[in-house]
Amino acid sequence: xxxSQKSKVxxxxxxxxxxxxxxxxxxxLILDVDGVLTDGGIILDNKGNEYKxxxxxxxxxxxxxxxxxxxxxxxxxxxxxxxxxxxxxLGITEVFQKCHDKRIAYKKLIEQYSLKDKEVAYIGDDMxxxxxxxxxxxxxxxxxxxxxxxxxxxxxxxxxGGRGAVREVSDFILKSKGIWQRxxxxxxxx
Length: 190
Description:
alpha/beta, Rossmann fold, six-stranded parallel sheet
């Protein structure tokens, strides 16, 4: 994060006009998995299976973003078939797993979608996310993120990772763009 931007972070609140203006321009939301889409717990059994728990409302928030034309991608340091499955269920086509330098995948996405950094939101929870958070226009930390990660965020969620944090961000982006009511109205016609 640029030094001038970092000094402003502490004075910003999620309800501020500046953060809403940034969110209004978001065209891509990038998510970490463990600690963001999940609560960070990883269950392994003796047969080599891995289990993760995802929050249904986070998934619905992702689907609403995609429906609104906002790209969603996953960049994670681990590899898991469960992540592939969940991404497929949600319609996320850009999934980068086993990324030890997440900036490489970030740069590929920026180039692929012809975006500027200011058009990207990134949600992270740990220090491995900080390099991308420094690049993204809207760096977000979940409520239970490390202190170092929170210090790099313009937006810290009220919800914990895997417990509604992604939904909180998706709703915030959609409301900032002024399309929330259209989405709500779409459900009342069902």
